[in-house]
Design a protein that fits this description.
The chain is of the alpha+beta class. It contains eight helices and 20 strands. The protein has helices at residues 30-38, 91-101, 153-156, 196-202, 210-224, 245-254, 272-278, 307-325, and strands spanning 4-8, 20-27, 44-47, 53-54, 59-66, 71-76, 80-86, 125-126, 129-130, 135-142, 148-152, 173-183, 232-233, 242-244, 261-262, 267-269, 285-286, 289-291, 299-301, 334-335. Strand 8 and strand 9 form a beta hairpin. The protein binds uridine-diphosphate-2(N-acetylglucosaminyl) butyric acid (EPU).
């Protein structure tokens, strides 16, 4: 176990924020992870791909970087396959691995930053597909008892960008591997969400393969979302707010063009990107940080912004959205 002191976390978070960890250890096996937990650190921070966090201060804790690797096929039938994937595998590399094997189910989730082990925590989703659609189970270690437990899909209690690991069990478990069930034939192609259909039409593709769907998703994402390797960001900074029908009726009288999606009989989801755009923040730059010019939902670090800079911008946005639309915007990223 190689515990290092005062390590910069800049390479470990996609926002590229330079804060330091008091102690840092990278683990590449469950055995090593258990050994680290057995030292009973008083303060612990678990780090996966660092793609859904905003670091606003130095971390006065032992940061454990989950670097468990491996993908294996566990069962195969004529039309399905189950694979077990270690938590430290990069999400998009997993999607590419599946596409090479011609395993279907994750193609709409192409290019989402982050690692496999953190994907279930917020039930990552894009273009009409969520992680939960292919999820079978995950294995996780209890930080207190150091016992491994398998969580079924029901036990994970997945919701929109939500799961039991963000709610009742927050901070109690570290996911070590995830089992997915994917299709080997008769892939369920989903192209009716967002701009996928238009993108495929552009390329004159009528019956797309899963590889072609992935290519379309990548093209759409690249046209709107900044590549964290080039411009620091954490994807959607805010969740899309869900409001009541009555509130929506009021909003519509003032903003008849407001985009919206019916969620239930009484609730409607409004795209946070539209709210922030309409409030005039899109493309606004304040020195080294700002709101992305092509997607107002994404806050960006152009160089050496601090987490505090970005946090204060996010608060300014929340205040403006409350003032203009009377809507509370919740952050999607974890603020640390
Ligand atoms: N819009 C604007 N201005 C903007 C951005 C969006 O007016 O600057 C409008 C668009 O015109 C559109 C609507 O808002 O009518 C929705 O925007 P978009 O289709 O870009 O997607 P989204 O609902 O804002 C969600 C996810 C993304 C995911 C996309 C595609 C959330 C918070 N975000 O965005 O997830 O990629 O759908 O499925 O649910 C992420 O989580 O990091 C992420 C990028």
């Amino acid at each position: 176990m190689d515990i290092k002191n005062n390590i910069s976390l800049k390479p470990f978070n996609t926002f590229g924020i330079d804060v330091s960890a008091k102690e840092f250890v990278s683990v590449d096996s469950v055995k090593d992870l258990t050994a680290v937990l057995n030292t009973n650190p008083s303060n612990l921070m678990v780090l996966g791909g660092g793609s859904n966090m905003l670091l606003t201060k130095d971390i006065d804790a032992l940061v454990v970087h989950i670097n468990l690797k491996g993908i294996s096929v566990i069962t195969t039938s004529e039309d399905h396959v189950q694979i077990q994937v270690s938590a430290g595998e990069n999400w998009h590399e997993l999607v590419n691995w599946c596409l090479n094997e011609n395993f279907g189910g994750l193609e709409n989730l192409s290019l989402i930053p982050g690692n496999v082990g953190t994907a279930p925590i917020q039930n990552i989703g894009a273009y009409g597909v969520e992680l939960k659609d292919s999820f079978i189970s995950c294995e996780a270690i209890n930080i207190q008892t150091k016992m491994l437990k398998t969580f079924t899909k029901d036990e994970c209690n997945f919701g929109y960008r939500n799961s039991v690991f963000k709610q009742e069990l927050k901070g109690q478990y570290i996911i070590t591997s995830v089992v997915f069930e994917l299709t080997r034939m008769n892939h369920k192609i989903k192209t009716n969400y967002g701009a996928i259909e238009a993108e495929l039409k552009n390329s004159e593709i009528e019956n797309p393969t899963i590889q072609e769907v992935s290519k379309a998703v990548i093209a759409i994402r690249n046209s709107k979302l900044p590549d964290p390797k080039v411009i620091g960001n954490s994807g959607s900074f805010f969740k899309n707010p869900v409001i009541s029908n009555s509130k929506f009726e009021v909003l519509k009288t003032q903003f008849p063009e407001v985009p919206h999606y019916k969620i239930s009989k009484n609730t409607i989801k409004i795209p946070a990107g539209w709210l922030i755009d309409t409030a005039g923040f899109k493309g606004k730059t304040f020195g080294d940080f700002g709101v992305h010019a092509k997607q107002a939902l994404v806050l960006v670090n152009y160089g050496n912004a601090s987490g505090k800079d970005i946090l204060s911008l996010s608060k300014q946005i929340q205040k403006a959205i409350k003032f203009i639309f009377d809507i509370d915007l919740e952050t999607e990223v974890n603020i640390l």
